[in-house]
């Protein structure tokens, strides 16, 4: 997706999601302690954070599953605390784990759920879109974990949602299945669906998301483009070679000096910037 | 706000009409019934169990009941019809909904535009289909193997109809209410079946009331199964069997009263205790 075009187009319209001062307590635990967020229409927005950081609670409030203690929340222009059927028909939800309807075939399951929505996708086209054509007649129970997840995604998008929530969609996938899944999500995003994604996999956020929010201790601790998050692009580079390493703002200069010292090739040379993971781990560190 | 973001076919964009609750309820009923008959555990537990018991008990206890011209197996047929109807509602839904809560069915459905009422309509359709088939098979076995006479008097079929409808509805509502008790799907079969099996033994399904101590009869009288079985005995054993009842009569007025009370009580319990979320979902 072209970020500039999206920005220009969405600046003028209402954001898909707007959250101000959201809080939620469970007993003495402040699971969500004042979150502010805006998700623009048509963007892929990733929420990262360790377990217990409040991201699932936040997302479940946005999905209309949980009530909030305080704060303003608007999802597609409505309060998710009072979900209506019409509002539900405009959002899609892919839950973390589900083992339901296992005795129906893939096609039977999708045909049934298609009846819930006012303008559903064509079931056979959807089966092809998620790559389950060969398994369409299989019972859901007989599918592999990755195939099962595709059914979940198909159920999430069957009503042509304007906004799709994906909760840790690729947990337990092998690398190939994960790549295929990313392509599927990229296709949906390309068609204009707004996507909110929670994930543990940083490379997933980096590959899919236009913007990333890092949530820790019930708050947003960083927000931005995954490439520049937490000052990543301007951070010092680390130059490492066989006999040592330095962190520097001028890695090219360092490499030239090293090359001169070794008289050509520098043994074991590498130049790295902090990965998203480095930035992330620093952000969520409570110290 | 217009939904410019999605690739919507222009025909549907202007006025969106959601499918009716009744239509979705019937669609749920069709899917629930399909899933029920594909789930072997559920079929054996709630559907085949009374049938197996009838064949077994009917074959073992083949004697006749003194002075009535009725046989023990005919008595079992009437009793197991009551137990079968109760099981299709109470056991089937008690275990089935607990499983739905545990495996993510309820959570997924709650996230769709399907109205909650359609889920319950679907369950009721499922229960009606299972109970109706159950009764039909038990009656067929009773007629073919145990010389059960189907009543020719239309008024007895009227009695059958209201006992069936009241009984199945009360059992279904109690099943929905009881589904909130088990902590998980794994424990549901035990938590739900235990009281149901006990109830069958004290409600005159397996053991005639004449063999039970009064305090057990008093306990059984609080629950709907005893009254449902009594109503079905009035239909299938007729006047000859009335002498076997404790009150020497089928007390149909009281049957209607108790079943009606359970219907209302079950509805109140459902409305006040039903949980959409599992315990682990907080």
UniProtKB/TrEMBL annotation, chain A:
Native species: Microbispora oryzae
InterPro entries named in the record: AAA+_ATPase, ABC_transporter-like_ATP-bd, ABC_transporter-like_CS, ABC_transporter_ATP-binding, P-loop_NTPase
UniProt protein name: ABC transporter ATP-binding protein
Membrane topology: Peripheral membrane protein
Residue ranges that the Swiss-Prot or TrEMBL entry lists as coiled coil: none
CDD domains reported in the protein's UniProt record: ABC_DR_subfamily_A
A Pfam family hit: ABC_tran
GO BP term, pick one: response to antibiotic
Keywords tagged on the record: Antibiotic resistance, ATP-binding, Cell membrane, Membrane, Nucleotide-binding, Translocase, Transport
Residue intervals of the ABC transporter domain: 17-242
Gene3D superfamilies on file: P-loop containing nucleotide triphosphate hydrolases
Any one cellular-component term (Gene Ontology): plasma membrane
GO molecular function: ATP binding; ATP hydrolysis activity
Annotated compartments: Cell membrane
Key word ATP-binding present: yes
Automatic annotation (TrEMBL), chain B:
A single Gene Ontology CC term: plasma membrane
Regions that span the bilayer: 42-63, 75-99, 120-145, 157-176, 188-209, 255-274
Domain of life: Bacteria
Name the record gives this protein: Transport permease protein
Location (main, coarse): membrane
Entry annotated with the keyword Transmembrane: yes
Membrane topology note: Multi-pass membrane protein
InterPro entries linked: ABC-2_transporter (IPR052902), ABC2_TM (IPR013525), ABC2_TM_bact-type (IPR047817)
GO terms of molecular function: ABC-type transporter activity
Homology family: Belongs to the ABC-2 integral membrane protein family.
Subcellular location: Cell membrane; Membrane
Residues of the ABC transmembrane type-2 domain: 41-267
PROSITE patterns: ABC_TM2 (PS51012)
Keywords attached to this entry: Cell membrane, Membrane, Transmembrane, Transmembrane helix, Transport
Keyword hit for Cell membrane: yes
């Amino acid at each position: 997706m072209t970020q500039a075009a999206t920005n220009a187009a969405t600046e003028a319209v209402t954001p898909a999601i707007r959250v101000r001062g959201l809080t939620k307590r469970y007993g003495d635990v402040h699971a969500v302690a004042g979150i502010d967020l805006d998700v623009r229409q048509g963007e892929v927005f990733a929420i990262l954070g360790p377990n217990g950081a409040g991201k699932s609670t936040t997302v479940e409030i946005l999905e209309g599953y949980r009530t909030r203690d305080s704060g303003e929340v608007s999802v597609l222009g409505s309060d998710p605390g009072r979900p209506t059927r019409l509002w539900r028909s405009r959002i899609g939800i892919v839950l973390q784990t589900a083992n339901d309807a296992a005795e129906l075939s893939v096609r039977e399951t999708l045909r049934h759920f298609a009846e819930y929505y006012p303008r559903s996708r064509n079931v056979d086209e959807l089966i092809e879109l998620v790559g389950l054509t060969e398994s369409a007649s299989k019972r859901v129970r007989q599918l592999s974990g990755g195939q099962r997840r595709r059914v979940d995604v198909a159920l999430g998008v069957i009503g042509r949602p304007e906004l799709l929530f994906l909760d840790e969609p690729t947990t337990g996938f092998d690398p190939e299945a994960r790549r295929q899944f990313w392509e599927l999500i990229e296709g949906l995003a390309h068609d204009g669906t707004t996507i909110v994604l929670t994930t543990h996999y940083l490379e997933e956020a980096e590959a899919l998301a236009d913007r990333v929010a890092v949530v820790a201790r019930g708050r947003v601790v960083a927000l931005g483009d995954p490439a520049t998050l937490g000052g990543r692009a301007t951070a010092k580079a680390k130059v490492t070679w066989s006999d040592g390493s330095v962190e520097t703002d001028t890695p090219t200069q360092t490499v030239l000096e090293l090359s001169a010292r070794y008289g050509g090739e520098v043994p074991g040379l590498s130049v790295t910037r902090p990965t998203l993971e480095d930035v992330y781990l620093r952000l969520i560190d409570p110290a | 706000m217009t939904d410019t973001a999605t690739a919507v076919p222009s025909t549907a964009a202007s006025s969106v009409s959601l499918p009716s609750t009744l239509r979705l309820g019937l669609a749920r009923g069709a899917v629930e019934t399909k899933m029920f008959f594909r789930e072997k555990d559920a079929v054996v537990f709630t559907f085949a169990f009374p049938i197996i018991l009838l064949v077994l008990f009917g074959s073992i206890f083949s004697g006749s009941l003194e002075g009535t011209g009725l046989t023990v197996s005919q008595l079992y047929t009437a009793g197991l019809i009551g137990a079968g109807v109760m099981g299709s509602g109470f056991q089937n839904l008690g275990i089935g909904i607990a499983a739905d809560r545990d495996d993510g069915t309820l959570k997924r459905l709650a996230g769709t535009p399907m109205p909650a009422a359609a889920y319950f309509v679907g369950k009721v359709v499922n229960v009606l289909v299972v109970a109706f088939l159950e009764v039909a098979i038990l009656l067929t076995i009773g007629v073919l193997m145990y010389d059960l006479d189907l009543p020719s008097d239309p008024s007895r079929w009227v009695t059958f109809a209201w006992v069936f409808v009241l009984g199945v509805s009360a059992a279904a509502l109690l099943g929905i209410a009881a589904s909130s008790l088990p902590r998980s799907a794994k424990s549901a079969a035990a938590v739900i079946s235990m009281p149901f099996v006990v109830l069958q033994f004290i409600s005159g399904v397996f053991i005639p009331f004449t063999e039970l101590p009064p305090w057990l009869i008093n306990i059984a009288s609080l629950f709907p199964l005893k009254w449902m079985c009594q109503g079905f005995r009035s239909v299938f054993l007729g006047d000859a069997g009335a002498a076997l009842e404790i009150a020497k009569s089928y007390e149909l007025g009281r049957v209607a009263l108790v079943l009606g009370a359970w219907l209302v009580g079950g509805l109140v319990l459902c409305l006040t205790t039903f949980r959409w979320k599992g315990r682990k979902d907080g």
